[in-house]
């Protein structure tokens, strides 16, 4: 979406972390990237940019690559905990297949509408939306007129797209966000979501 005339815009390239050592719902588990995951992220950013700064989730699967890229490019780096992944509660560290075998009705309800069903001990989707929205608004305010690389997670990328009116709530979990996928957004720097 182009910015209005005279209104500074911001371009944010949202990069999901690459393959991790843990499969399944990683959420807040601080797992690391595999060698393949690091390679995926290097390939994804090889022809990207130029960026003015890097903002990253503090979780290791994002921050380790962001730190290496910052050293390589000389860019500043910001750690933003509001861009950490959704907390899956008791589902953390488990695969969808494992959950399906033990509690298929719960997993089905979550896939159908994560706003209406919260996994046991997990973050409520409204709380997640509020957290990401506040981080997004702050990012827009700090970086007007710049191009930013945001290294983050699939849930955060989906939520940003949803908050920017590019992803209807009913399609939230249908949006494909593969490992090391890059998703570009251009928005007016003054267009907050909260």
TrEMBL record:
GO molecular function: phosphatase activity
Gene that produces this protein: pspB_5
Keywords (A to Z) from UniProt: Hydrolase
EC number: 3.1.3.3
A Gene Ontology term for the protein's cellular component: cytoplasm
SMART domains (alphabetical): PGAM
Pfam name, any one: His_Phos_1
Protein's name in the database: Putative phosphoserine phosphatase 2
InterPro entries per record: His_Pase_superF_clade-1 (IPR013078), His_PPase_superfam (IPR029033), PGM_Phosphatase (IPR050275)
Gene source species: mine drainage metagenome
């Amino acid at each position: 979406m182009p910015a209005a005339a005279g209104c500074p815009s911001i371009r944010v390239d949202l990069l999901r972390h690459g393959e991790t050592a843990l499969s399944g719902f990683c959420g807040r588990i601080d797992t690391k990237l595999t060698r393949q995951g690091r390679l995926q992220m290097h390939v994804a950013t090889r022809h990207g940019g130029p960026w003015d700064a890097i903002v990253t989730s503090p979780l290791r699967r994002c921050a380790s690559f962001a730190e290496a890229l910052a050293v390589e490019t000389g860019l500043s780096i910001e750690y933003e905990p509001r861009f950490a992944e959704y907390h899956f509660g008791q589902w953390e560290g488990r695969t969808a297949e494992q959950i399906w075998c033990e509690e298929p009705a719960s997993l089905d309800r979550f896939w159908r509408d994560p706003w209406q069903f919260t996994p046991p001990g997990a973050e409520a989707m409204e709380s997640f939306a509020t957290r990401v929205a506040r981080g997004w608004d702050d990012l827009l305010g700090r970086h007007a007129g710049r191009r930013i690389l945001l290294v983050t997670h699939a849930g955060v990328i989906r939520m940003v797209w949803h908050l920017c009116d590019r992803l209807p709530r009913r399609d939230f979990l249908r949006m494909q966000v593969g490992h090391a996928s890059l998703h570009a957004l251009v928005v007016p720097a003054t267009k907050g979501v909260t």
